[in-house]
Specification:
The chain is an all-alpha fold. It is built from five helices and no strands. Helices cover about 80% and strands about 0% of the residues.
Amino acid sequence: MEKHITLVGVLNIVYRSFLLVGACVLFALAFGFGRLMNFLMRAGSVHPDEIPYEILDIVPLLLVMIGGLIFVVSLAGIIGGVGVLKRKEWGRILMLVVSFFNLAHVPLGTVLGVYTLWVLLNNDTIRLFNPPAQSAPA
C-alpha cells in the first residue's frame, strides 16, 4: 500500500499543478477579455451589434470566479499531496476532500479521484496514517 500512497500523492500534485496553470490562463483571459473583443471587432470577425453588452460585462467576472475556484482547490490539492507524501493525517483528509472535486473532471479527474478515494479509504492506509498510540512506560 506504500507505493499506492506515494503514487496518489505524486499524481495529485502533478494533476493539480496543471490545473493551477489552467486557472492562471483563465485569469489572463479574464483580464485581457476587453482587449481581445476590441481586436476581434477591429478585425471584422465580430460585429458590435451581435454581442449584448451585458455578456461583455459578465464573461470576465465568470472567468475570474471559475479561475479562483480552480486555483484554491488546486492549491489545496498540492498541499494535500505533499501531506500525503509525508504521511500526515491532515494531508489524507485534505486529499479526500479534493478527490471529490476531482470526480467532476471527466475523464482524468474522475479516474484520479476514484483511485485516490480507494487508496486513502483503505483500512491499511488509515492504520499507516494513524499509528496506535504507545503506552507510556510505568
